[in-house]
Each structure stands twice: as structure tokens, then as C-alpha cells.
Specification:
By secondary structure, the protein is mainly alpha-helical. The chain is built from four helices and three strands. It starts with 9 loop residues before the first helix and ends in a 7-residue tail after the last helix. Keywords: Cell membrane, Membrane, Transmembrane, Transmembrane helix.
């Protein structure tokens, strides 16, 4: 029988789940932004520039950005937020006592486009269902008399 979370960790699991629910869609949006930026850069030779000679926000030829290069910014922000996402996934994984394969699967959510959105809807449903089932089972157990 695999290890199961202790009832005393249920509040921590709920907190970790909320953190994961915030981190997953942010990571997904940043990943999609990164994919769009990579497509623009490598397919069309364009980078996104903020506040340059072409206006407030403009696509410029690669390597010619003179102001803030948002393409590089998107890359850096996604990289750092992926670390936050991994921490959120690891915390939830460790509290739920899932197997290592589940952690690797969750880690792919920040690398494969749209997967984090799928997980953000599926994982909370699964965790909340598990917690409510365990709490209902604990409430249904007869209380032993103190002798």
C-alpha cells in the first residue's frame, strides 16, 4: 500500500494546492509568450522592443533592439517563474506523497505548452476529491470509547 498523507497535513496540502493553482497558469501564460517570442525570432527574425525608435512597443529585426529587449525579458521571467512552479509542484507532490513519476509529469507542465493549464484544472479536482474522501471516511469511523 503506498504511503498516504497524514490528516494533520491536510491544511498544509490545501495551502500548497492554492500556491500551485496560482503558479500553474502564470507559468502557462509565460510559456506561451515564450513560444510566440521564439516563433517571431527564429521564423521571422523579429524581436520585441519596448520604448525604442519604432514606438512604445514594436517588433524590430533581431539584434537591433536599442531599448528594452522584451524578448530576452520574457525568456528570463519564464525561466525564473518555472523555478517557482517547480517548487509549487514539489511541495504539493511531497505533501501528497505521490510517486516520483508524478513529480516528473508535473515538471513537464512548465515545459510543454498548454499542459500546465490542463494540470491546473485536473490536479485540484483530484486533490480536493482525495481530501474530502479521506475526511468523510474519518468522520464515518466509530469513535472508540475511552476505558
Amino acid at each position: 500500500m503506498p504511503l498516504q498523507p497524514k490528516p494533520s497535513t491536510f491544511p498544509a496540502i490545501r495551502g500548497a494546492l492554492k500556491f500551485y493553482q496560482v503558479a500553474a497558469p502564470i507559468t502557462g501564460v509565460l510559456l506561451l509568450s515564450l513560444c510566440a517570442e521564439m516563433l517571431m525570432k527564429y521564423a521571422f527574425g523579429l524581436e520585441l522592443e519596448l520604448g525604442g525608435a519604432y514606438g512604445f512597443l514594436a517588433f524590430v529585426p533581431s539584434g537591433t533592439a536599442t531599448a528594452v529587449n522584451l524578448s530576452t525579458g520574457i525568456l528570463i521571467i519564464h525561466g525564473w517563474f518555472y523555478v517557482v512552479y517547480l517548487f509549487a509542484a514539489f511541495r504539493l507532490w511531497s505533501l501528497m506523497r505521490w510517486n516520483v513519476l508524478r513529480l516528473l509529469w508535473l515538471a513537464l507542465g512548465g515545459i510543454i505548452p498548454f499542459l500546465s493549464f490542463f494540470f491546473e484544472s485536473r490536479i485540484p479536482r483530484e486533490v480536493k476529491g482525495y481530501l474530502s474522501g479521506r475526511e468523510a471516511a474519518a468522520a464515518a469511523e466509530p469513535v472508540e470509547s475511552m476505558q
